[in-house]
Amino acid sequence: MVRMRFLILSFSLFFTNVVIGQKSFEKASKEIDSLLKKATNKNPLDIKKSFLLLNQALELAEETKNYDKEISVINELSRFALTYKHDLQEAIRYVNRIKVILKKTNNNPKYLAEYHNSLGVIYFNNRTDRERACKELRTSINILEKNKLKPNKNHLNNYGIALLTEKRYPESLKYLKQSFANYNSGKEKDEHNEFLIMISMNIGICYSYLNQMDSSEYYLKQCLDFSLDKGTMADIYKSYTYLAVFYQENGRNELAESTFLMVKGKENQFPGELHTKAQLYEGLANALSELGKYKEAYLNREIQHLYEDTIKSFDINKQLLTMEYNVELDSLKQGKQLVELNSKISEAQLTKKYYLMLLLATLFLSGFGFLLVRIRKTKELNRISLEKELLEKERVKQEAEIKLLKSQETITSKTIQLSIRDQELDKLKSSLQHHLDKSTDPQFDDLKKFLRLAKASEKRNDQLKFLDELVKNTNNVFYKKLKEKHPDLTQSELKLSLLINLNLSSNDLIEIFNISLSSLNTKRYRLRKKLNLSNSDGLEDYLMNFQFVY
């Protein structure tokens, strides 16, 4: 379950949205919700417009003293600052605005809990201080319980996920299940089963960490059922993918293949989710490879690489837009500072006696300020130009890699053509052998002998190819068990051990390694020494203790 442990990263932590009951807030609440929806549904590369919408929502919430909505907008602004500007301090500054609400409400425990929950989410998503994240989220729940308030589903889910990343699995499962029960007992329901899909997946993953695979499979299937009931196409695709990865990681490759194929090819029905799409093709390629369907595995691996290249390009574009937005913000701040400075100077022009002095001061400060702005802007533009050049080099490199992948696809096509020709040649040889078998003419004896030798040579080549594929597969049980007990063995020594375990003769080993008999005996001697075998211990008998499965 190695890869399943990373799937949890694709689930975002939920912030609390508390519905306001006062009729006087209804109109403002709807408008704030609309602005929030527009901001979060925007193209993630359109950072500037999203920030403008969120600031409009924040101003409206502050004007109407709608504290619940104000906290929701603050949380979204802090998330944007962390995700797109990569500025932890700015994200914390946004969350600290909740302290103003606390002063206005005499430290209302509900809002105090929200403050600690928001801090915990910020530290969790920043991935630099997960211990602090757990502490803040736990504090949030403690405050509510101390004041006899019931923690909502999002507080419990957030803390459960934080515990999961800290490998405190039994505690994590406890809070995730409480969150699930809290949702089922409450009146609040979401339109597309979004929370049910997320919490079922989290519980399923937590059970996988506890090696309770039956329970893990149950909740992953439940996640799929919720997706099929009301979820979006993206939810259905993701649920099938995670369930199939679960099967593949547990060695149930045929079931994994059929599960992957349920949604394969439906990527164009919804935008985004590039990591999930890459995950599907990676898992499918692994399953097909384990089933021996190497050509199909290769084709799916190529599609996986194409999605990964797209993700890299997307990240590069996002970095460029983030840098440009930060430069624009700095320019606006500098411009605002200059305007404020000129305004103060203008207000100071109260008497004719100091008119000339103030005018000269204004000109000097404006010119000096303009010069400083020009110098800073020039330096910033030079830095951006250099970073763009580096990113352009990276893009060219990626294009070269894609071109190489296409050439490899051409090689595969040629290989298939050669395979077809080999099949036709086999048919001709079979037909010739059939006629020679019927003939008793002694003049065909040499030809018959040649065909027998050719057939024996082909069989030998097939055996060598099979052995080569076998020793290249380092994921078989024999390799893993032998490597676990003797971690200092080299790849060549592991290969020799596997071939000896297959009862290959010394002549076979000499031919495979392309060495002399004396060199082979030296390799066997060194292998025995590394395995700590005495003179009375048989090398073949010892290696038989390690089960061979491929």
Helix/strand order: HHHHHHHHHHHHHHHHHHHHHHH
Largest sheet, in brief, is:
none
Mean pLDDT, as a whole number? 79
Total beta strand runs: 0
Instruction: Determine the fraction of residues in helical runs and give it as a percent range.
Output: over 70%
Instruction: Give the number of domains.
Output: 4
CATH topology grouping of the largest domain: Serine Threonine Protein Phosphatase 5, Tetratricopeptide repeat
Total of DSSP H or I helical runs spanning 4+ residues: 23
Which geometry do the CA atoms define?
A: elongated
Known CATH architecture of the largest domain: Alpha Horseshoe
Spans of at least 5 consecutive residues with low confidence: 5-23
Structural class comes to: mainly alpha
So what's the CATH class of the largest domain?
Mainly Alpha
Output the radius of gyration.
34 Å
Can you identify the CATH superfamily of the largest domain?
Tetratricopeptide repeat domain
Q: What is the distance, rounded to the nearest whole angstrom, between the alpha carbons of the first and last residues?
A: 19 Å
Strand content: under 5%
